[in-house]
From TrEMBL:
<dbReference type="InterPro" id="IPR029058">
    <property type="entry name" value="AB_hydrolase_fold"/>
</dbReference>
<dbReference type="InterPro" id="IPR000639">
    <property type="entry name" value="Epox_hydrolase-like"/>
</dbReference>
<dbReference type="InterPro" id="IPR000073">
    <property type="entry name" value="AB_hydrolase_1"/>
</dbReference>
<dbReference type="InterPro" id="IPR050228">
    <property type="entry name" value="Carboxylesterase_BioH"/>
</dbReference>
<feature type="domain" description="AB hydrolase-1">
    <location>
        <begin position="45"/>
        <end position="303"/>
    </location>
</feature>
<protein>
    <recommendedName>
        <fullName>AB hydrolase-1 domain-containing protein</fullName>
    </recommendedName>
</protein>
<dbReference type="Pfam" id="PF12697">
    <property type="entry name" value="Abhydrolase_6"/>
</dbReference>
Length: 312
């Protein structure tokens, strides 16, 4: 008999969060959005998920945020090529392409620069690039995109050159193989359950066995939810070669970095150094957790974000 899936440890909190789903046309393609909390509140946060994720992975943080700030509105899109959102028509699934999409997104759902923008992991790179004054073509944004920036488990340096570069290199080799195989076989390799579990095990830090099992099941459910091999491989290359640091100096708004003290993808020393690259930033390191703060310690992440939004 198959083992029954575990319920989310945050299920009660998540189910109590009002949510509506919609879609918008951005950069010529359709983006699916989930909006949580008050749909008319001026207190607005837009959050971008990480590589191979979708909006589901951010729901624990969103639910805890709404408990901390009941009047908050939180918009979470599925990035193009992931979850319910199809790839961008022009195929630009690199950091500049996603940054252009993110700028259009924020201006569509939160015009006037009154919202805050956040991103987790690869989403932190996209969010920082979107907020930077250094945009493709060297043009300055016509108006402030957002009033503040929040980076959750930010990527301080390209993972391909960081402490975990051996593991990243092995993963890159598998992605190269998947790209060289025929379409069906290559896509099957990228979606293989064993690769998902290896990645999941490498990131989990909690000693709680039930929480660990649920995190693995979450990755099993959503890690393979990419649209096409082509968009996935392009985004993967961007995720291992991009970093927040290359955009940090161009960010003019107050910035909060929330990282894990045991994050192998972003060692604490690199995160501390990254903070100094911004004009106005502070770092909070959550003890005992790595790259999965959104799953392991969403309450701590939410408290820090809520306090920051009250000040920014």
């Amino acid at each position: 008999m198959a083992r029954q899936s575990l319920p989310s440890p945050y299920a009660t909190l998540v189910s109590g969060a009002p949510v509506t789903r919609s879609q918008v046309t951005l950069c010529g393609g359709t983006t699916h959005l989930w909006q949580y909390g008050s749909d008319r509140s001026a207190d607005h946060l837009v959050v971008l998920h990480g590589f191979r994720g979708d909006h589901h992975g951010l729901e624990p943080v969103v639910a805890h945020l709404l408990r901390e700030r009941p009047g908050l509105r939180v918009t979470v899109p599925d990035l193009p090529g992931f979850g319910a959102s199809p790839p961008l028509p022009d195929g630009r699934h690199d950091v500049p392409g996603y940054a252009a999409w993110a700028r259009d997104l924020v201006r569509e759902v939160a015009p006037g620069g009154t919202a805050a923008l956040a991103g987790h992991s690869f989403g932190s790179v996209v969010a920082a690039a979107a907020m930077s004054g250094t945009v493709p073509g060297g043009q300055e944004p016509a108006a402030p995109l957002a009033r503040a920036l929040v980076l959750i488990n930010p990527i301080p340096r390209p993972p391909v050159s960081g402490r975990g570069r051996l593991g990243v290199g092995a993963t890159a080799a598998l992605h190269s193989l998947a790209g060289a195989l025929p379409e069906t076989a290559g896509t099957a390799l990228l979606r293989h359950a064993a690769l998902t579990r290896i990645a999941s095990v490498a990131m989990v830090r909690t000693p709680e066995k039930t929480l660990t099992r649920w995190i693995h099941e979450e990755h099993d459910r959503y890690f393979a939810g990419f649209a096409t091999r082509r968009s996935l491989l392009t985004a993967f290359r961007a995720s291992i070669t991009g970093s927040v640091r290359e955009w940090a100096a161009g960010v003019e708004v107050p910035t909060l970095l929330v990282g894990g003290a045991r994050d192998d993808l972003a060692p604490a020393s690199d995160q501390k150094e990254l903070t100094t690259a911004f004009r106005d930033a502070r770092l909070v390191l959550v003890p005992g957790v790595g790259h999965l703060t959104h799953y392991e310690t969403p309450d701590a992440v939410a408290r820090e974000i809520a306090a920051f939004l009250s000040e920014a």
